[in-house]
């Protein structure tokens, strides 16, 4: 191994001599190797010199490892290759660690950690058996790769594995890389734990790197259990305060069985974030977990970026447990398979979640509770996009209620590209959620309710969305439907009072806005002023079931340009208040099978007395014959004389002559004569002349009777 390292040190090509002589700091500046060695201090120089001179030197010093410590391995996030290291590495074998899997290497490795003095500690390939917590200063522990370097934490019930100490100087970096952390014989507590001390965030700006790791137990359970181990960690990584943490390229296999009651299984979690001051920020990527009961737990004061994570066969995926929450988290390009809740966040804003696939295992245990694909509580002003959720129940039935997207007290949400799939009782469930917008939503498979609006959800706009057969589109609880607008395919609008406004941008003042509104079973067309503050109905259509019961137009003039109008019955809007036609707009002919009926009920009349118009009035009238000055309409709706006049004679009275007769008789007002004040045209109601005619006949009849009596009396006298 040492010979291999020595050979690697001398393979740098001549053309890169300058680069090889310098390391690269995180800020991009350079430090030459001499300056670096000088910076180690006298003790470091003595260590290097002792080995180079062939002496025994100080235990733990390997001069031929100095170059490797500066120029080894792959580039780390935030570092340029060749990698910058803080100091010469420490090899745990030099402190007595055997790595044979049997010998207890706890004391030897702890001695190496104690002697590190800020330098990284190397774990060559081997199996290192540990029986007590290893206290780690803020340094980096590096193996030769997962599966090659294995640290076996043996029979460590309730104990931590690598427990990092708090930093004592600014800018220190700790980490664990390129090894397998194995739990054997009993469940252990935290495989890796860092302090939750506020000064690490505010003062010391400590950083961590946990990369290229494997977490697992020792023995696999039965094949039917779904590839899980016998023992595992309460938490694989428990991250406290820091000024940045890189957690990447990690595989973790736990003990959780999806086909078994979760309450009977230990509560194990892959990653817990919780700080006293803050985590800025945890960058989590390239993670695969399988059979870990909870994937990622986001606690207090943690900024996070999660990408490229695959959480399989879990009880809970990514959950928020903190009460003092930092906003602005990011989750994207992630797969989650969980039996209770896949993604649960609370009490935050400015969060973005995108490109996530969520599912429930088809053979999962029916725990009897509700299932949530995405559960957000008091998450505001955030973006949710391109998320697919489904709960597969094809093998194991599920008795609880399944929610695809469950939002409670969430405001200002922008959601697009959501897909609600199989096995869901509710696709999207909104509980007291204001100001949501949705677009490009799909409801697939045969499931339950698409959108459920509950508990004062309001001011929501539902854009384009489609349902496959079997979905109930919408459900409304205690909400004001007028504050929920739904746009469907083919410009279908849906809400309690859906409306469509059209605006002519260059229209004249108060002539720009037109509006259609549906409300209370009626469709109203309206004009609206420019201030959007006032509307006037011009068409009102009312329905009852599948019948239109009433249609009303409100306009100064209504034109039915040449149309034939058919109706079973035509009635005025109110009784005895409206005219049919006018003096200037008259019907030419009215066809009827029976004459007009004029109501004459005594209950509708008052001041009833005998007619004072009789024979004298009738005798004063002049019956005439006449011909009309017929007119026809032009295109601009003005009148003009036709080229050919109709020659048929009409018989009747002249209104002006009737008025003159009334005046001469001092008869006063008579409803049989009318005048249109607007045009001064006069007209007659011929049915009003019936009573005077009857009166005249009665008067004549009386006169005839009197004459007959007189004649009869004269005849008797002559015979006498």
Automatic annotation (TrEMBL):
Pfam families: Pect-lyase_RHGA_epim, Peptidase_S74
Spans annotated as Disordered: 1-30
Record InterPro entries: RHGA/B-epi-like_pectate_lyase, S74_ICA, TAT_signal
Keyword Lyase among record annotations: no
Residue span(s) of domain Peptidase S74: 600-711
tRNA processing found in the keyword field: no
Record keywords, A-Z: Membrane, Transmembrane, Transmembrane helix
Transmembrane segments: 35-54
Name the UniProt record assigns to this protein: Peptidase S74 domain-containing protein
Organism this protein belongs to: Paenibacillus solanacearum
